[in-house]
Structure formats: C-alpha cells, structure tokens
Amino acid sequence: MGYIKQITIQGFKSYKDQMQIEPFSPNCNVIVGRNGSGKSNFFAAVRFVLGDDYNFLNRQERQALLHEGSGSAVMSAYVEVCFDNTEDRFQTGKPEFFLRRTIGAKKDEYSVNRKNATKNEVVQILESAGFSRSNPYYIVPQGRVTALTNMKDKARLEMLKEISGSNVYETRRADSLKLLTDTDNKCTNIDSVVESINERLGELEGEKEELEAWSKNDRERRSLLYTMHSREEGELEAKIEHIDSLEHHGREMREDNEETFRRNEDAITRLESEVNQRRGDLDILRQDRIQYEGERKAATLEKARLELDLKALQESHSSAQQSRSRRDARVKTLQQQMRARQTELDQLLPQFEAKKEEEEAVRAQLLDAEGQYKRLQDKQGRTAHYSNKRERDTALRAQIDETNGDLSRRKAVLMQTNEEITELQGDIERIEGEIAELRQAIDNEGDAAVDLAAQVEKAKDAKKAIVDEQTKLWRDQNRLSSQLGNVQKELQMAEQTFSRLLDHGTSRGLESLRRYRRDGLQGVHGTIAELLEVPENYRSVTESAAEAALFHVVVEDDTVASKIMDRLTKDKGGRLTFIPLNRISVPDSNLRATENMQPLLPKLVYDDRFEAAFRHVFGKIVVCPTLDECKRVAKQYNVRAYNPDGDNATRKGQYRGGFHDPSRSKIMAFSVVAEKRAQLEEFQQKNREINEQLDSIKHKLTAAQSELLRRQNDQRRGETSYTPMREEVRVKQSLLQDARDSLAKKQRTAADLEAAINLLGAQQSDWEAEIASKFTKALSNDEEQMLVTLTSTVKDLKKQHAQVKQERAALETQKIEAELELNQSLQPALDDLLARQGGAGSSATQSTGLREAKRALDTINITIANLDQQIEETDTQIDEIRAQIEQLETERNEKEQSNRTLAAAMEKQEKSLSRKDADRSTYTAHLTKVRKEIRDLGTLPEDVGRKYSKWNMEKITRELAKTTQAQKQFAHVNKKAYEQYENFTKQRRTLTDRRAELDSSRKSIENLIGVLDQRKDEAIARTFKQVSVAFKSVFQELVPIGTGRLIINRRSDGAQDEDDSEDEAPTQAARKKGSKIEEYVSVSIAVSFNSKHDEQQKIGQLSGGQKSLCALALIFAIQQCDPAPFYLFDEIDANLDAQYRTSVANMLQKLSGQGGQDGKGGGQFICTTFRPEMVLVADRCYGVTYTNKTSSIDVVDREDALGFVEGMQK
Question: Domain with 84 in it: what CATH number?
C-alpha cells in the first residue's frame, strides 16, 4: 500500500529525545492532545521529511526547527518515516522503505534506506510512488480547510488547473513561445545579411575583366615558381633521405653496440659476482687448510707422545713377563702343596668323624652303665636307711621332684644349644658361599680388567666421534658465515639498485612493510611483483602496462590496509597503495585471443586466490604485434594495447614508447632482490640449524665426557678392588674356622646334655618303678647279680673309652695341623702371589694398556693420514679456484676492454649522428619553407608538369623575371575579386538553406503549441468532470438529504458547465479551434442542505460549519480523483457541527476500510482532533503529551482518548 508504518523524530521542534512512535494502523489513526502539546509539530515533521513544506531553508530557518529547551543544546535534528513497501510501490525490492531528512546549523541532508540521496532523487522516488506535487491535498494542515472555505471562485479554478497538471503544459508552451521568438529573430538577421551579400556581388561583377588578364600572367608566374621550387624540393628530399639512410644504419649500429654493451655489462656483473664467490670459496678453503694444518700439528705431537708411552709400556711388559714366569712357578708349587695337604685332610676327616662317633657311642654306654650301677647302689642303701615303704616313697618322690626341675633346665639348655648349632651351621654355609664368590671374582680379575678397558675405549671412541662432528659443524659454520656475508653485500647492492628505480615514498613504504611482517603482521600477501611470474617474452609489456601497480600491495581486507596505513603515518614510513581482496570485484572482460590480439592476463602465472587483484591490474591489457593494431584494438574493445616491446597506442591515436633499458627493469631488479633475499633466508636458516646442532652436540659431548669419566673411574676401582677382596677372603676364612670350632664345642655340649637327660630320665623311671614295688630290706637276687655284672662292665667301658678318646685326639691333632698349614700358610702365600699377578702392574693390566696405546697410535696415524689427504685436496681446490679466478678476471678484463672500445665507438657515432641531425634540421627547415611557398602558390594549371619539364633552371629564371615585371602593370587590380565573389556566393547559399530550416522549425513549434493547448484543455476538462462527479457523490454521503455540485463560469456569456451536463461536453468544447479554457473564469459551488430539489445556494450564503463541510467534500473529491497512499488531517472537524462531524468520521472509516483496493481514495488516515466522533471510528489512538518543554507520543486506549476529548470539551 505504501502507508506509514512508523515515524522516528529527534531534536525537531518540541521533540528533543529520539521518539520512535509505535507502528501506525494501515487504516484510521487518531491523535489527541492539548493545545501546544506538539500535535501540529508532529504533522510539521511529516511535511518536513516529505518536502511538502520547508523547502530551501536558510541557516536561521534551520536553526528555528531545532529543539529549544532545558538541558544541552541540540545541534542536529532528523525525522525518519518508515513506509510499508510490500507491494514494491517505491521499487526497491524491500518490504520497507525508510526516508530520513537531517538538518543542522550547516547541513540539510536526505537519506533513502540509510544511504545518502539528493533532494531531486527523493522527489522523483515520491512522485513515482504516487505523491503528486500538483495535488498537495493528501496533507491537510490547520487552516487549509478554512482557506478552501474562503477561497474565491477564480482561485478555485486555478486550484483545479494545478490538480489537472496544466502547469506542466503551460511551462512547455512558454518554452515553445520563447523558441518561436528566437526563430523569428534569426530569420530577420538572415534576411538582412543576404541583402548585403547581394549588393556586394553586384560590385564584384565590374572588376572581373581586369582580373582575367592579371590571372593569366599570374598563372604563368606561379607555374614557373612551382617548377623551380619543385625541383629544389626534390633535391632537398634526396639529401634528407640520404641522411635518414645513414642515420638508420647508424642507429642500427648504435643499437647493436648498445645491446653488446649491455650484454657485456651483464656479463661483467655476473663475472664480478662469480669472482667474489670464488674468492669467498678461496678464503674458506684457506681457513680450512690453516685449521687442517693446526689439527695435523696437534696430531703429530700427540703421535710422538703416544709412541713414547707405547715404548715404555712395551719395556714394562717385557720385565713383567719375566716376573710373571717366576710367580707362575711359585704358584704351581704352592698349589701342588695345597692339593697334597687338602688330600691328606680329606682322608683324615672321615677317620676323625668315625672315631668321634665311636667315642660318643662308648661314652654313652659308659654313662648308662654307671647310672644303672649307681641306682642299684642307691637302692641298696635305701633299704637299710628307711624303715618302711612310706618313708622310702616320700624320699623318692622328693628326689623325683628335684630331678624334674633339673631335667627341665637341662632340656631348655639343650634346646638353646641346638638353636645355636643351627645358626652356626647357617653361618658356616654363608661364609663358605661368600668365600667361593670372592675366589671366583679374584680368579676372573684378568677378564674384568679387559672388559673395563674395552668400555673405556668405547667411551673414548664415542667422545671422539662427537668431537669430530663438532669440528665439522664449526668448519661448515665458518664457510656459511663467509657465504652469508657475500650474500648480504650482494643483497645490499641489489636493494640499492632497486630503490633507485622506485620513488622514495614507495621504497620506504615497502621497507616498512617488510619490517611489520617480520614483527608478525598478518593478512599481507605481498606486492603484485612478488605474487607474479612473468615469461621472458612478456616482461617488457608487463612492466610498461603495470607501471607503479607492480608494487601495489595485496592484502586480505580493508581492515588490514587501514591498520598498515595508520602505522605508516605514525612511523612516517612512506606511502603504499593497497588492493584489499574483499573490496575488489572486477568482472571478466571476456577478451578472447585472436590472431592480432593476445590478452596479457592468461600469460601471467599467479595464485588463483589473487585472481581479482590481477584482473584489476591486468584485466584490460592486450598485446598486439604492431602499434597500428594496438590503436585499432584499443578503439574497438576499449582496452590498453601494447606491442611486445612495451610501446603503447591509445584509442585516440596517441603513441607512447621508445627504448627500454633492460638494466633499469623493475621486474628484473625485484627478481634479483627476491633471489638474494631467498638465498639470505636459506643461509640464515642453515646457520640456525647448525647452531641448534652445535647446542645439541654440546650436550652430547658433556654426556660423552661424563660417560668416559664414569668408565675410567670404574676401571680404577677395578684395578684396586682385588686386594681388599683377598684380605676379605682371609678374614672370612678365619671367621669360618672360628665358627667350625664353636660348632664342635656346641655339638659336644649338646651330646653331654642329651646323655645327662637320658641318665636323669632313666633314674627317674627307676625311682617311679621302686615306688610302685614293695618295700624290702635287701636287693633281689637279680639286682645283686646285675650289680656285680655292672661293676665289671663299667670297668671295661672306662678302659675302652680312654683308648678311643686317645685315638680321636691323635686324629684331631693331625687334622688341626693340616688345616693350619693349609689356611694359615699355603693359602695366604698363594693369595699374595695371585694379588701381585692381578694388580695394577699385572700382565693383564699391562696388556690392556699396551693394546690401548697401540690402538690410540693407530687412530692418530689414521687421523694424520686423513688430514694429509684433506690438505692435499684443499691445495688442489685452491689451485683450481685460483685458476678459475684468473680465467674469470681475464674474461672480465676482456669484456671491460670491449666496452671501453664500444663506448668510444658509440661516442663517435653519437657525434656523427648529431652532425647529421643538424644537417637534416637545416634541410628540413629549408624543405618546409619551399613546401610552404609551393602551397602559397595556390591552384596551378594541370599541364604545369609537362610544359616546363624540359626547361633548365636558367630559362626558368629568365621567364620568371619577365612575368614578375609584367605583374607590376596590374598593381591596381583587386586580386581577390574571384575569391570574394565565390565566398559571398557560398555564404548566400548557406544562409538561404538556414532560412528554410528556420521556417520548418517555426511550423513545428506552432504545431507543438497547438497540441499543448489542446492537451491542457482536455486535462482541465477531464479533471473538472472527475472532481465534480466525486464532489456530488461525497456531498451526498456527507449530507444524505442534500445535494451539491460544481459550476464552471465562462467569460463570454456567463454560461455554466455543470457536473450533470453531457460527459463529453467540456472535452468536445476543448477540441474546437483555439483554447476554450481561456473562457473559463471561475469555479463555484452550489449546494442544498435541506432538499435535493430546493433551490441551491452559493457557498457565500452558507454558515461557517456548512462552508467547512463543503470544503471537506471538495478535498475528499480531489483525493478520490488523485488517490495517495496515506492522508494527514490536522483538526479538519474543528468548525463542523456534531451531525457533520459524524458524517465526516463515517466517511473516514469507509475510505480507510477500502484500503485503496479500488483506487478511489482509500488508504491510511492520520488525523488530529478534539472531537469524539473520529475517536470512535479510529483503529488506533495516540496521545501527545508535553513535559519539560518536550513532546512525546504514545499509544492510548480508545476510552482514554474519549476521556481526554470529553475533558477538553468541558
């Protein structure tokens, strides 16, 4: 529909803060508020933004529209209207249309959909959306109804003319009349000039006869002059052509010499670079040789020391071999003696153990027999001592109790003794194992020493390998440092050359950009030259076409570009041009390669990510074989065309080109800089890697040194650890012997305890048996007999025990003597010999040292041989590089000598060409003068070439003198009579044609005026008819019992055209010859409020309320004829009676309900009122309040709005 959805006001008149009014209804909206609250300012804001009022505001008028109140001053104000655009009435393709007008003390601006727009653009948009400038009645402010009410009939006619659009026709008619007046003036001027020309042609007729004679003589004179000048022209052209030929040949020679000179310069530069590189390599080789010499000298000294050490070791080893032979013989003797004694001991031990067991058995028998004997004697004594059984039993029980206590004590002691025996047996077994382990370790002393020596050698080899690697890295680093210095010098020279080719600002800007990128700046891809690879045959044209754009910087987006520009400004770091990829959008030029045209862009190599940037720079550049083709292609395709040499021809015919010095090629210079930077970065990266490797080697070397020290310490500990071990063996053997002695004592004690326990047990058993027997005064016969037998048995056993004991003691003495000799004499002597044999001066240790010394000597010999080979190879390389340097310097000197010769030749050629240029300038100037004289001769006879072709210069000169003398007789003749006659005749013909054209234009203008008059008459008649019909209909709706009509009053006879006349009457009258509208003098209104048939009254006869109703009926009629999307009414019902207010309210409800669907006045209505009738029909109500000199608008309920209106009426 295009209705108003929302209005936002800030700082305008009484609206200070941003006031965003709630969305309006698309139908009827009513605004209520007290007088002075800001209702009219709201309507003024809408008229302000729509341009209905407040046009061409000066500074004071703009300041008057700004809010004035308490608080800070308002510096600017704006009003924004949001229109519904769902039907695309504003042709933007968006569902909403925003129109804003902003004013300040120094500005008055419009914006459309948040984008700036001019006032003319806004007017065009509004008119295309249906806001007619000729019908301003879609906004009815206060006073307009009153103005219509009091409007004169003549003014009402002018209003209808304005609504019909007749002003447009009037403007065009006035322009046509002005053009017609100009045409009449031009025709008058032409007639005057033609008359003057005719008078002058009559005067020239009388001078023609004398002119004929003069002309004949003049033709002959000019023919002779032409012949003479023509021959001179030919001679001059021949001379110039000869000079051109010589110059062409000279230029070719000069170009060849210059090309050779440039090639020599490039070769000299290349040779100089190679010489510097070779010298750098030579310096590195010299340093390597010095280092090799130093290493060889140190290795030679080390070799001498090792040879001395080896000789000493060999001598020591020979002496040690003799001592070892003597020790080996003594060891064998001791070992034989020990084996003999051990064999003897092994034989004694079984005999000793057997005797020992026999002794124990005899002793047990003896103790048993003595016990039985003693018990029988005790029993015999008790029979005499005790008188009865009770006394005996009491005494026996006392003895049994005493024996029980003794037996318990002896068993406890036996148990403890057995535990000690078990512990001693464990100790003996442990000590024997430890002694065996120590003896095995001592026996392996030689093998362990060899293993430790091997581990030490392995650690030394590992350390030497790391040291060799470190030395190699140091040598590589020295060589790399030399190369790095050379590359840095070459890069500095290349950058200086490149900087001289750029302007100072760009050069500094690129340097600053490189620094920013090193600091971590992201989003920079590089310059066009960096991102580009150009084929050799397209290098010149690429450089000529791109020019400064070669060093425009491609960045990711405009944010990156802004950031860099800010830093450049802050650092004063130069100036750069940026190509942000997010802002570049270049359409494809659709250029296709042809036989005579090749687009340059497909020939270039670049990353597809930068397609837009390269199309921006090279998208409209083509390459053509010749400049003529360049001109044609540039004009046909609107492109920039270049030939392969980089010369350019524009579509306007301008040529630009000439010599391109390859030494000043920016692409080549930049490629050299880029190459050197890449080399520098490569060398720096290698240097960093070497430093990292050296750091790693340093840690490895520390670890290897620690490992070597640990292995050497292990070796020293191994060499000194066997003497303590042998001492420990002797100590443990002593401990073992002590333990064995203790074990024997404990075993004897245990045997004694067991015998005593057995004896006590047997005695106790006898006592218990005696208690159980009868009491008698004497032993039984069996006991008497046993007593006698035991007496002899004890005696025999004692004798046997003594003999066995003596034999056991003899065997024990032999065992102890053998053990003492074996452990205290032979074994210590053998251990001492073995200790001396396996110590630091042992054969195994000396052999290990000898092998180590030989191995070190072999290693140092290999090292010296390698160093000799490296020195020899280095000397060979030095000789080769010296030869190369000499050859390169010779070649460079030859090139320099060749260039000096070429420079002298080119200087000579330049002087010769300069002289020829001076001669050619002289000849050219003379030729130009001759040609000018030939041109000044004018038109010549056709036979001039044949007539004088065979005359010599003498005859031509003589005849020329005669004709020149004859010309003096015609000095008084008008020489330009013919020319003036022809010129005047041509001017008369031109003016006559122009007069005919003006007559034709006059007729066209008169026809246009007639058509405009006719269309204006038709538009006014049609508008009057539509408005009169609509007025009658609207009035009848407002006053159902009345009627109303519009009347057009004529000037001629007072006749009236009424709205109920024939439909075509006004139109037919307007189509008659001439404009009938000029006869219309006014439009009057005739109405009747009481009857459809009563006599109607003129508007001047009505009351104030009736006049207002008639004015509103006319407004509604105009709106139905030219509907708008919305309507603003400011208190249009102020002067109406109650019944008419209701009619007007119903009319608004009806029209807003139509919504414009039938195109007859429907649409949105926004009205202000103090009456309840409009409030009752409103779809949405708004209340305007005024607080602290600030207005605000809010949505209110219908009840609140009615309450406010009723309160105002009270």
Answer: 3.40.50.300
